[in-house]
Specification:
heterodimer; A: 127 residues; 7 helices; B: 262 residues; 4-stranded mixed sheet; 12 helices
Chain lengths: 127, 262
């Protein structure tokens, strides 16, 4: 689930990677007719102040990031985790990470089946 | 090329970290030894889900991740066994020392402080000072300026770590003169691999620690779970086959009959 904490974190991360300070960010927002203090930006980034639709649209434009990227569900698969940290990731490497990921999913599923946490149809033995 | 010996000089902060991880490593060793487990891989597979697999394209020795409420330690067995055992202890260090951060971030990358902590944990777990000094006294018993590669070889085979990890530890503990470090380190370089192999054999050791293990392995618990799911008709033969394939095994290896169709 997406929440203001995650949105704030993503805004902060993007702002930093664009090399814009909170103060400069406030100035840029002001140029777009959104008046916001440095403190307010800080609160947004910490997830303690909500952002409205107009604000988020402008924020995304200034920070060169799409709304989708800000709102996308938190990924917890290995490939996206590796991507976050390693920009130059080769296709072969992704393939291997996916392979490991699938196997981990399988193992966790097997344990659930073992503990009867998974309800299986009588003849469905595809797991 | 001259290697800097900055691992010898610890900052006060690093000293503090060492003390902390030293105790954690000691606690862990005692806890598992009481249950009869001493091997690093055995300890990991009982703490987390352990997966060892040779992966050619992933240029990492290993990683720890938290997925679906499970801690998973993955080790790349294309590296030498000595290297892999150290990576194992390093990853276990992350699990022991950085559990809550792992839960939050799912995987840990590029954080100098926590990497340092995990590495020192590995050093203290695999080569505790007391043990190293005692064994050194038993099988080497020479002044620090008289240490030769053969002594490093004897020691690293004893503690089942890589040659270079052992050398570093001996220099750090003052058992080997730091002026000898660069010369002794040369032997462990990639170009000198054949030289090292020859020296190891001369000392009467097999080469397992300095060659890739290429092991395919998962925690015993999970291997048993897969088998028992199959035996209790909870999964198909096909599924069993594909799961076992990951660890390089076939249903026949466990005495199951071949089932073509279901």
């Amino acid at each position: 689930m997406i929440d203001f904490n995650i949105i704030g974190e993503r805004i902060k991360k993007q702002r930093n990677s664009e090399g814009i300070s909170q103060k400069r960010f406030a100035e840029l927002l002001d140029e777009e007719n959104i008046s916001m203090s440095r403190e307010t930006i800080s609160k947004i980034e910490n997830g303690t102040r909500a952002v409205n639709a107009i604000e988020i649209d402008t924020i995304c434009r200034i920070l060169n990031v799409s709304l989708d990227e800000i709102f996308e569900d938190e990924e917890t698969d290995l490939v996206s985790l590796f991507r976050t940290y390693e920009k130059n990731i080769s296709d072969e490497m992704i393939e291997e990470i996916e392979f490991v990921q699938d196997f981990i999913d399988d193992l966790i599923m097997q344990k659930k089946i073992f503990n009867d946490e998974m309800k299986l149809k009588k003849y469905d033995r595809s797991w | 090329m001259e290697k800097k010996l900055d691992f010898i000089e610890e900052t006060p902060r690093e000293k503090e970290i060492r003390k902390k991880v030293q105790n954690k490593a000691k606690d862990l060793r005692i806890r598992w030894a009481q249950k009869g487990l001493f091997d690093i891989f055995e300890i990991i597979e009982n703490e987390c889900i352990l997966i060892r697999k040779p992966l050619k394209n992933i240029n990492v020795s290993g990683f720890t991740t938290y997925l679906n409420d499970n801690f998973i330690i993955f080790l790349n067995s294309t590296y030498t066994l000595g290297h892999e055992r150290f990576s194992a202890a390093h990853e276990l260090g992350h699990y022991i020392l950085h559990e809550s951060k792992l839960k939050k971030d799912k995987i840990l990358f590029d954080n100098e402080k926590i990497e340092y902590e995990a590495t020192q944990f590995a050093v203290e777990l695999l080569m505790p000072e007391e043990g190293v000094r005692e064994i050194f006294d038993k099988i080497v018993k020479l002044p620090p300026n008289k240490i030769q590669s053969r002594h490093i070889i004897r020691m690293h085979n004893y503690f089942r770590v890589s040659y270079s990890a052992m050398l570093k530890r001996l220099v750090f503990l003052g058992l080997c003169n730091k002026d000898l470090y660069n010369g002794l380190r040369e032997i462990a370089s990639l170009e000198n691999n054949e030289v090292l192999k020859k020296l190891e054999m001369n000392e009467g050791y097999d080469l397992s620690l300095i060659e890739s293990s290429n092991v395919n392995y998962i925690s015993k618990e999970y291997e048993e779970i897969i088998r028992s799911n199959f035996e209790n008709n909870k999964i198909s033969y096909k599924k069993l086959e594909s799961l076992l394939n990951f660890i390089g095994k076939k249903p026949q290896d466990y005495g199951y009959e071949v089932l073509e169709d279901e």
